[in-house]
Amino acid sequence: MPGTELFGAEERKEVNDVLETGILFRYGHDAQRKGHWKAKEFETEVKKITGAKYAHAVSSGSTAVATALAASGIGVGDEVIVPPFTFIATIEAVLFVGALPVFAEIDETLCLSAAGIEKAITPKTKGICLVHMCGGMADMDAIMAVVKKHNLILVEDAGQAFGSSYKGTSTGLFGKAGSYSFDFFKIATAGEGGVFVTNDEATYNAADYYSDHGHSHVGAKRGMEEHPILGFNYRIGELNAAVGVAQTRKVPHIREINRKYKKMLTEILSKTQGIGFARIADPEGDSATFLNLLLPNPETAQAVVDAFNEAGIAGFDYWFKNMYHFINQWDHIREMRTASKLAIEVLGAPQDYQNISLPQSQEVIGRLISFGIRCTWTEEQVKELAEKISACVASVMQKQMV
After folding, report:
1. In terms of Cα–Cα distance, which of 321, 326, 327, 285 is closest to 306?
2. Which entry of 38, 176, 186, 262 is annotated as an active-site residue?
3. Domain range summary for the chain, segments of one domain joined by +
4. pLDDT, tens digit, for every residue of 111-150?
5. Mind listing the pLDDT tens digit for each residue in 173-190?
6. Is 186 among the residues known to form the active site?
7. Which CATH number does 252-323+361-401 carry?
8. The domains spanning 3-250 and 252-323+361-401 adopt the same CATH topology
9. Helix-strand-coil percent breakdown of the chain, rounded to 5?
10. What is the pLDDT of residues 81-93, one digit of tens each?
């Protein structure tokens, strides 16, 4: 799945452009950089893929989420509905802008459900930080109906869903702002990097200022601009952006191959009793970076994981025990062991974080086993993997019927 599966001459060329000028900073030094503006080029390539009117590259997917929240007007004391299944950065970003996370149920899309959001809304709810997980997307028609009904701010964390869409609109562009991750483990990588997107000019300007200590980037020499707002340093460097430029151009090709291999795997595995799949809200928009299996129950899923390990099948995640992506392992969140908990200390937690009951999420994630899809596989390797997965599941199911 990492974009560096296809790392080569294109990335080296973009990086060498920067090294030859010595200008690693994304702003200023116009004469010395010889026309090379890699952060700007990176943003342009992201806009081509997503159709976003505005894009702004930052230092990571995590800072892209934080920028999206801040630029959208989420701040101290605001309740923000979040999923229990996401990379921990989503929750960190909410806390670090001073907001209060409120956990809600997911469904078999692996994303927040409209019903889960509706149930979690209180008079203090200001927004939703919706995460599009594992290369797919949430059920956006139903979720947007809830957003509009309650007049909520929607921010999308599409860190794992760059290149995916729902009914023709890219993930990240349904709400006020969205974010993508370009770390090492995404469909395209900058090594470390993220991109904020929006279709709203005022929100874009706020993000542009916020991610560079509040600099306006208008007119005056660097360091002499006005500071419309207070911000922080979330800047991306030109070297990371250079890698992102070349990688993003490869996404349509990578996505095409991923979809081909995911279709092959799904067609073969669907013939095996006991194997189900996470629901794709819009199959035509799937970036196909993951194959997400749903087993009949958590006990079967654990037995299948054991069988995979015995058979030497690698490259899968059993999400129920994943240390970074599911609430069961987030002791530091439940106990609020964080340097950024002022709002919670002053206003009180909106939930009892140590005793959150999310039975539907527990049931779904307890059944979930995921495989990252690699565009460098051969068709023979795909068929071999499918046969091994089928054999393991069939063996477990047979034992359970005895």
Report:
1. 321
2. 186
3. 3-250, 252-323+361-401
4. 999 999 999 999 999 999 999 999 999 999 999 999 999 9
5. 999 999 999 999 999 999
6. yes
7. 3.90.1150.10
8. no
9. 45, 15, 40
10. 999 999 999 999 9
